[in-house]
Every structure is written in structure tokens, then in C-alpha cells.
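User: Reviewer 2 asked us to show a designed sequence for the structure in our supplementary figure. I'm pasting the C-alpha cells here. Could you produce the per-position amino acids so we can include them in the response letter?
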């Protein structure tokens, strides 16, 4: 039994049991698809569910799809409206996570991107934490390198490329750490297995540039803006050496899944005092207020599900 009852499939909201693909589907055989991950936050006071930056998420999905020669069936606004309708049908009154998928669905043998049938699907499930220890993660630098833009673009949220993330994550966890930090082929810090990364050095945030094989994270963008506007902290986007992790004052991951998660240790070396630093703590506070719609100037990022 899945926690959800419905899905968007072939243009309609259907029962989850009806949303099935063949074992011969291209996506199953070759990983030729892309996906998104969108959170909805329950606001108890307003009795309202607020979906965070859905248009930005669907814009990125469209860009990933474009790289894979996948045509999305609807525009960003229509995909958002359809997602809101799905969540209403599920009657969720709690935090949720939505997973849109766009993929090649032709039942045939032959690896390519062109002349194949496209499909779009989406489901939404109740969701809490993605990483258990958001207040204090122990991370390690992975022996696996991040895929290069000329191998499979990390800028796209491409299904097949998450095997790279899975290698890194399992290596880290099987070695007793909570999360992996992956380097580019050139040896600079790229990101976590499914998170962007930030360091705090000398009062400034530092994060890898989008040309260092990272996903163009929506939480990353949000945090850069919130740090500046709410805490007066600038972010420098530049390549980061591995050893800078060891000497950082603070470090954290950002992502729709992990939200804003403190890194307190890297490769068994404590970051700062080895506990969540004050800047990460403040950013988490501002972030959670923002996503629950409690800061009026960012309210436009929060799309209400129910009419009131
Ligand atoms: N990097 C990777 C590899 C990811 O999978 C994710 C999660 N989507 C992120 C970064 C964070 O992106 P976002 O903030 O848009 O969720």
C-alpha cells in the first residue's frame, strides 16, 4: 500500500494502481528521463498547504527535458495547476513532497533520445525529513567523482545520472557517515549526493559556481537571497578546494529534500566547534519561516493549494 491514492498519468489524475509502465519502457532500460522534487508545507494557523516555488521547479524540469529531447505536455503554470489539483484530490493536510517525472516511454531496444514517445507523470506523498540529522551531519568526501557536463549534464535532473549519487551516498553511509560530498573530475567541491553545499568563511558564504557540475538548486538560490536580504551575508560563487572544507567556520547542505542541513564534521574533522554554527541556525530559522509563508515579502514563493 502506498501512502498516496492518485497520480498524474497520461494527462489525467488516475488511481495510483493505474499509473503503470512496461518493463520494456525506454526509461527502465536506459534511464532516459528527468524528474523534479517539490515540497508543500502545511501552515497550521492558516489551515493551508503552501507549495514552494513550483513554477521554478517546473521551469527547471522543462530545461532538463529540453536537454533530453522530451516535450512536456503543458507549460509551467499548467503543470503547477495540475499538481495542485492532484494534492487537493489526495486531501493532504500535512507536509508533502511531489515528484514530477518526464521520460521516454517507447517499448523498444535502441539507445538514443530522438524519435521516442514522451510521457509525463507526477505523484505526491506525505513527507517529513529527507535527512534524519538536519542539525548535525557527519559527511565524507566521496571517492566517486561528479559526472561532468560533457558526460551527463549535472545541470539536468536526469534520472540515469542519479546512479552517480547513489554510488556516493551508499559509499558514505556504508562507511558510517551520514552524507557524501562529491568532487568534480578536476578535484573541486561540487555538491552532496542530492544537495548543494555552502561553506562559511570569514563571514561570507561560499558555494561552488553552476559551472562546477552542480544541479542549479532552487533552495541554493533561495538561501543566497535570504542570506543577503535577511542576514546581510553575501555569497561568493567560486570553485572550492577540498581542504577548504576542513578549515571552514561553518558548512551546510541545501536542497528540497534536506532543506537547510548543518554539516558538523567532514572526514572526521569537526567543522568549527563540531556543532551546528550560529549562521546555519539563523538561516534555518529564516528558511522555515519563508517556506511556511510566514515572511510576507517571500509569500509569492508559496502557492496555496486550497481556496479559502
Ligand atoms: N543537487 C542535486 C544533485 C540534487 O539532486 C538536488 C535535489 N534536487 C539538489 C542539488 C538541490 O536542488 P533543489 O534545491 O532545487 O532541490
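Assistant: Here is a per-position design you can include in the supplement:
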Amino acid at each position: 500500500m502506498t501512502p498516496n491514492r492518485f497520480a498524474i498519468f497520461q494527462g489525467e489524475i488516475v488511481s495510483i494502481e493505474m499509473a503503470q509502465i512496461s518493463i520494456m519502457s525506454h526509461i527502465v532500460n536506459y534511464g532516459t528521463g528527468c524528474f523534479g522534487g517539490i515540497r508543500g508545507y502545511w501552515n497550521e494557523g492558516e489551515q493551508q498547504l503552501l507549495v514552494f516555488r513550483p513554477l521554478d521547479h517546473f521551469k527547471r524540469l522543462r530545461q532538463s527535458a529540453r536537454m533530453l529531447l522530451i516535450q512536456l505536455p503543458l507549460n509551467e503554470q499548467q503543470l503547477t495547476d495540475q499538481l495542485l489539483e492532484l494534492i487537493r484530490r489526495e486531501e493532504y493536510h500535512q507536509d508533502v513532497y511531489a515528484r514530477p517525472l518526464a521520460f521516454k516511454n517507447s517499448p523498444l531496444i535502441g539507445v538514443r533520445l530522438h524519435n521516442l514517445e514522451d510521457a509525463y507523470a507526477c505523484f505526491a506523498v506525505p513527507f517529513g525529513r529527507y535527512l534524519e540529522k538536519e542539525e548535525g551531519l557527519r559527511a565524507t568526501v566521496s571517492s566517486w567523482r561528479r559526472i561532468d557536463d560533457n558526460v551527463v549534464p549535472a545541470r539536468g535532473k536526469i534520472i540515469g545520472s542519479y546512479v552517480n549519487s547513489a554510488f556516493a551516498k551508499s559509499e558514505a553511509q556504508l562507511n558510517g557517515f551520514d552524507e557524501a560530498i562529491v568532487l568534480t573530475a578536476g578535484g573541486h567541491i561540487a555538491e552532496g549526493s542530492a544537495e548543494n553545499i555552502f561553506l562559511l568563511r570569514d563571514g561570507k558564504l561560499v558555494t561552488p559556481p553552476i559551472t562546477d557540475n552542480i544541479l542549479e538548486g532552487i533552495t541554493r538560490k533561495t538561501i543566497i537571497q535570504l542570506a543577503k536580504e535577511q542576514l546581510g551575508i553575501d555569497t561568493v560563487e567560486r570553485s572550492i578546494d577540498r581542504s577548504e572544507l576542513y578549515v571552514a567556520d561553518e558548512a551546510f547542505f541545501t536542497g528540497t529534500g534536506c532543506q537547510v542541513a548543518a554539516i558538523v564534521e567532514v572526514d572526521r574533522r569537526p567543522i568549527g566547534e563540531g556543532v551546528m554554527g550560529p549562521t546555519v541556525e539563523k538561516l534555518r530559522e529564516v528558511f522555515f519561516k519563508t517556506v511556511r509563508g510566514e515572511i510576507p515579502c517571500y509569500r509569492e514563493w508559496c502557492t496555496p493549494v486550497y481556496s479559502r
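For the response letter, you might also mention the following. The two ends are 32 Å apart (CA to CA). The chain has a mean pLDDT of 97.
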